[in-house]
C-alpha cells in the first residue's frame, strides 16, 4: 500500500512484543506507533483524519473505555482493534465502544490494510460531505416463497450480481434466511462479519460501521451481508434489528436485495412490509403452485404486499402438464418473469459463482439478466454492452470512486 495521503495511520500498543509486530505489519502505511494512549494523543492533529490501530494489549475493558473516550473527543479519529483472539462478545463490546472494525492478530496483513483503508476513506468522506441533504433511499427487493428449494436464493444472488455489474449505483445483498442462509456460499465468499454482528451493533451503528460489516464480491463489487454462521444465532436477531440493517443499507445503496427463508415469521413479515418489490418464486410443479396458493391466502399476502408482488416461474420449461394460464388462474397473479430450467444453474452453484457470471449465455442467465434489466430502464441499455464486456473493471472502478466519496 502506498502511503495514504488523505488520512494518517497511527497505532498504540503498551506491550513491546506486540508493538514490534504491529510496527512491521504497518510499515507500508508510515504509521506512528505509540506505547501509550497519552503519547498517541500528543500526535493527533484535530484537522487530519486518523485511523488508530489499538493493539492486543488494549483489547480489554480499560482499552475499550479509552477508545470510546478518544473517539468522542476526536471525531476525526477512527479506531481499528486488533486482538489476539476475536470472540463475538469482544467484537460486540468493541463496536459498542465506537470501534470501527475489529480483527484477530493472526488475520493476514492484507485484511488489516483493507480495514484501515476502509475506515480511513470513510473518515475522509464523512468530512468532505457534511450533511449532504436528504438521502435518496435505495430500492429494497426481496425474494419470497412459502416453499423451500424453488429458486429464491438463485434469483436473489443472480439479480444482485447483475445489478452490481450493470448499475452505476452501489448494490447490497442481505441473507434474510438467518438459520440456513446460503448466499455467501452461492457467491463464493467466506463470511467474516455476518448479520449477527450488524444486528448487535445496529443501535449504535453509523454508515461507516455498517460498511465495515459488508464483504465485497470481487468480480462485481456487490456488497454482501451473510447469514450467521451458527443457525442458533438467528433467534437473537429481532425484526427491529433486521429492519434497522435494511434501512441503513438503503441509505447507502441504490438496491438492497434480501433473500428470504422458506418460512414465515416476524422478521419475514417486517421485510415484506419494508420491501418495494416482492418476488414471489414458484416452480413449475403442482405442489409448489398449490403451496403458493395456500400461502398467499393464509398469509393475507395480497393485502400485505399486493401491488409489490412480482410472480416468477422458475424452471418454467419443465416438461410437466402445467399451463401458465392455469398457474395464473390458480394463484390469482400474472406471471411477470419466467426462468427456464437449466443445467448451468446447479453447475454454477457447485462453483460458487452465480450462473449469470459463470455462463452468461445460458438460457437461465439471460432470463435472470432480463429481470435485473427491468430495474435499470435506460441505464441497462447504456451499460449492458460495456458491462458484459468488462464487468470486473467497471465494478472496481465504481467501487473505488464511491469509496473515496467522489
Ligand atoms: N432454473 C433452474 N434450473 C436448474 N436448477 C435450478 C434452477 N433454479 C434453481 N435450481 C436448483 O435448485 C436448487 C435450489 O435453489 P435455491 O437454493 O435458489 O432455492 P431456495 O428457494 O432458495 O431454497 P431454500 O428455501 O432452501 O432457501 C439450486 O441449488 C439449484 O441447483
Ligand atoms: Mg434459499
Explain the overall architecture.
- Residues 385-406 have low confidence and may be disordered.
- By secondary structure, this protein is of the alpha/beta class.
- Helix 8 (195-201) crosses helix 10 and helix 10 (239-252) packs parallel to helix 11 (266-274).
- The protein is built from 19 helices and 13 strands.
- The strands form 2 sheets. Strands 8-9-7-10-6-11-12-13 form an 8-stranded mixed β-sheet, sandwiched between helices. Strands 2-1-3-4-5 form a 5-stranded parallel β-sheet, with helices on both faces.
- The radius of gyration is 23 Å and the shape is elongated.
- Bound molecules: adenosine-5'-triphosphate and magnesium ion.
- The site of adenosine-5'-triphosphate has 19 residues, from helix 6 and helix 15.
Can you give keywords for this protein?
binds adenosine-5'-triphosphate, alpha/beta, 406 residues
Q: Mean pLDDT, nearest integer?
A: 86
Uncertain segments are 385-406
Q: Helical region count? A: 19
Helix fraction, binned, reads 40-55%
Total strand segments: 13
Shape: elongated
Major beta sheet, strand line-up: 8-9-7-10-6-11-12-13
Report the structural category. alpha/beta
What is the CA-based Rg, rounded?
Answer: 23 Å
The biggest sheet amounts to: 8 strands, mixed
Strand content: 15-25%
Ligands, deduplicated: adenosine-5'-triphosphate, magnesium ion
**Span between N and C termini?**
21 Å
Set out the fold topology:
Layout: E1 8-12, H1 16-25, E2 32-34, H2 37-43, E3 50-54, H3 61-73, E4 77-83, H4 88-96, E5 101-104, H5 109-128, E6 139-144, H6 152-166, E7 171-175, H7 183-187, H8 195-201, H9 207-213, E8 215-216, E9 223-225, H10 239-252, E10 255-259, H11 266-274, E11 277-283, H12 286-298, H13 301-305, E12 309-314, H14 324-331, E13 335-339, H15 344-351, H16 355-358, H17 363-373, H18 378-389, H19 391-403
Parallel strand pairs: 1-2, 1-3, 3-4, 4-5, 6-10, 6-11, 7-9, 7-10, 11-12, 12-13
Antiparallel strand pairs: 8-9
Helix pairs in contact: 5-9, 6-17, 8-10, 10-11
Bound molecules: adenosine-5'-triphosphate and magnesium ion.
Amino acid at each position: 500500500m502506498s502511503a495514504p495521503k488523505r488520512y494518517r495511520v497511527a497505532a498504540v500498543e503498551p506491550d513491546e512484543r506486540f508493538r514490534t509486530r504491529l510496527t512491521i505489519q504497518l510499515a507500508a502505511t508510515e504509521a506512528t506507533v505509540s506505547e501509550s494512549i497519552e503519547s498517541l494523543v500528543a500526535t493527533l492533529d484535530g484537522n487530519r483524519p486518523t485511523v488508530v490501530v489499538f493493539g492486543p494489549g488494549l483489547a480489554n475493558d480499560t482499552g475499550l473505555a479509552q477508545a470510546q473516550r478518544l473517539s468522542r473527543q476526536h471525531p476525526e479519529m477512527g479506531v481499528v482493534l486488533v486482538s489476539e483472539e476475536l470472540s463475538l462478545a469482544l467484537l460486540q463490546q468493541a463496536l459498542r465502544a465506537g470501534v470501527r472494525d475489529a480483527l484477530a492478530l493472526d488475520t493476514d496483513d492484507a485484511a488489516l490494510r483493507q480495514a484501515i483503508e476502509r475506515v480511513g476513506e470513510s473518515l475522509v468522506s464523512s468530512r468532505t460531505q457534511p450533511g449532504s441533504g436528504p438521502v435518496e433511499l435505495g430500492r429494497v427487493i426481496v425474494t419470497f416463497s412459502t416453499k423451500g428449494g424453488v429458486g429464491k436464493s438463485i434469483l436473489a444472488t443472480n439479480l444482485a450480481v447483475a445489478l452490481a455489474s450493470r448499475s452505476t449505483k452501489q448494490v447490497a445483498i442481505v441473507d434474510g434466511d438467518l438459520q440456513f442462509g446460503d448466499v455467501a456460499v452461492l457467491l463464493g465468499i467466506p463470511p467474516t462479519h455476518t448479520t449477527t454482528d450488524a444486528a448487535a451493533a445496529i443501535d449504535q451503528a453509523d454508515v461507516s460501521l455498517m460498511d465495515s460489516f459488508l464483504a465485497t464480491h470481487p468480480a462485481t463489487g456487490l456488497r454482501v451481508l451473510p447469514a450467521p454462521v451458527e443457525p442458533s444465532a438467528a433467534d437473537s436477531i429481532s425484526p427491529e434489528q433486521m429492519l434497522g440493517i435494511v434501512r441503513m443499507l438503503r441509505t447507502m445503496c441504490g438496491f438492497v436485495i434480501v433473500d428470504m427463508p422458506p418460512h414465515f415469521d416476524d422478521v419475514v413479515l417486517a421485510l415484506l412490509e419494508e420491501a418495494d418489490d416482492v418476488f414471489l418464486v414458484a416452480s413449475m410443479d403442482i405442489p409448489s403452485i398449490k403451496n403458493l396458493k395456500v400461502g398467499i391466502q393464509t398469509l393475507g399476502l395480497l393485502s400485505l404486499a399486493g401491488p409489490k408482488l412480482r410472480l416468477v416461474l422458475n424452471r418454467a420449461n419443465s416438461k410437466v402438464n402445467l399451463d401458465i394460464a392455469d398457474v395464473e388462474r390458480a394463484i390469482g397473479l400474472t406471471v411477470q418473469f419466467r426462468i427456464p430450467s437449466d443445467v448451468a444453474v446447479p453447475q454454477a452453484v457447485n462453483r460458487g459463482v452465480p450462473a449469470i457470471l459463470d455462463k452468461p449465455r445460458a438460457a437461465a442467465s439471460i432470463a435472470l439478466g432480463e429481470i435485473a434489466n427491468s430495474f435499470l430502464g435506460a441505464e441497462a441499455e447504456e451499460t449492458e454492452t460495456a458491462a458484459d464486456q468488462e464487468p470486473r473493471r467497471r465494478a472496481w472502478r465504481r467501487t473505488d470512486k464511491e469509496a473515496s466519496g467522489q
